[in-house]
């Protein structure tokens, strides 16, 4: 009788332990990224929201206001939900001076460096699936240089410029089990007013709206 009770108790304990184990997240899931490094590359169009950009549209050159950028990033996942990304960005941006007696578009080089904190909402809920929605906020700096030489009645472009920057955005990412994935990144960046080479007497920030498509690789956990 005692032996049967012991066997029954052991069976119940084993069953309870099995149920408890199944209720916990799978620590070997390929979609858990805690303590893993990753690398990514992305590229896409930029729409600048700076002074006098509406002159592109008024002169029938609206698509010339768009420019392109590319970014290479390295990141580290502190937990499944939180990671830090450091990215270098290069773009050849569009700008415009005041349309005083004419249309004055120009181009310039822009190199950015950002550090972003990223939150993965699915991982925050311990929901480990291939598709993830993330948001980020970052601080950084930009160097702009190589402005086009323009003849304008009263405006002068300064080069080079060093500008502090902030940005926010959202990431829609789909990953495969072997660590590779692809994503779309939609973000807004803000810089001080000298970013595009000249100061305005209106809004004190230069801004850019970016849409990127990219690829990512999560390195295996050692």
What do these coordinates show?
With 222 residues, the chain is mainly beta. Helices cover 14% and strands 51% of the residues. It has helices at residues 2-23, 54-58, 121-124; strands spanning 37-49, 66-77, 82-96, 105-120, 131-145, 161-175, 180-192, 205-218. The protein has an eight-stranded antiparallel beta barrel with strand order 1-2-3-4-5-6-7-8. A hairpin with a 4-residue loop joins strand 2 and strand 3. It is elongated. The two termini are 49 Å apart. The model is unreliable at 2-10 and 12-26 (pLDDT under 50).
Short description:
The chain has 222 residues and is mainly β.
Helices and strands in order:
Elements: H1 2-23, E1 37-49, H2 54-58, E2 66-77, E3 82-96, E4 105-120, H3 121-124, E5 131-145, E6 161-175, E7 180-192, E8 205-218
Antiparallel strand pairs: 1-2, 1-8, 2-3, 3-4, 4-5, 5-6, 6-7, 7-8
Strand-residue proportion:
over 45%
Taking the sheet with the most strands, its summary is:
8 strands, antiparallel, barrel
Mean pLDDT: 87
The number of helices is: 3
Order of helices and strands: HEHEEEHEEEE
* Fold-level CATH name: Porin
* Low-confidence parts: 2-10, 12-26
N- to C-terminal distance: 49 Å
Overall SS class = mainly beta
Question: Which CATH architecture would you pick?
Answer: Beta Barrel
The CATH C-level class name: Mainly Beta
Shape: elongated
Helix content: 10-25%
Number of strands: 8
Report Rg.
25 Å
């Amino acid at each position: 009788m005692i032996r049967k009770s012991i066997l029954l108790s052991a069976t119940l304990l084993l069953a309870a332990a099995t149920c408890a184990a199944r209720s916990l997240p799978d620590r070997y899931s390929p979609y858990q990224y805690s303590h893993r490094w990753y690398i990514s590359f992305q590229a896409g169009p930029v729409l600048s929201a700076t002074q006098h950009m509406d002159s592109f549209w008024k002169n029938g050159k609206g698509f010339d206001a768009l420019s392109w950028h590319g970014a290479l990033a390295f990141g580290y996942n502190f937990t499944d939900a939180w990671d830090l990304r450091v990215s270098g960005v290069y773009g050849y941006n569009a700008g415009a001076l005041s349309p005083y007696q004419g249309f004055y578009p120009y181009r310039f080089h822009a190199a950015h460096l950002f550090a972003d904190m990223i939150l993965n909402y699915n991982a925050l809920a311990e929901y480990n699936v291939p598709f993830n929605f993330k948001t980020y906020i970052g601080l950084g700096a930009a160097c702009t240089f190589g402005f086009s030489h323009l003849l304008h009645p009263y405006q002068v472009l300064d080069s080079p410029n060093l500008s502090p920057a902030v940005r926010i955005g959202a990431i829609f990412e789909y990953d495969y089990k072997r660590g590779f994935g692809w994503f779309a990144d939609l973000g807004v960046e803000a810089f001080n007013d000298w970013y595009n080479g000249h100061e305005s007497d209106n809004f004190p920030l230069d801004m850019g709206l970016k849409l990127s498509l990219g690829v990512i690789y999560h390195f295996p956990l050692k």
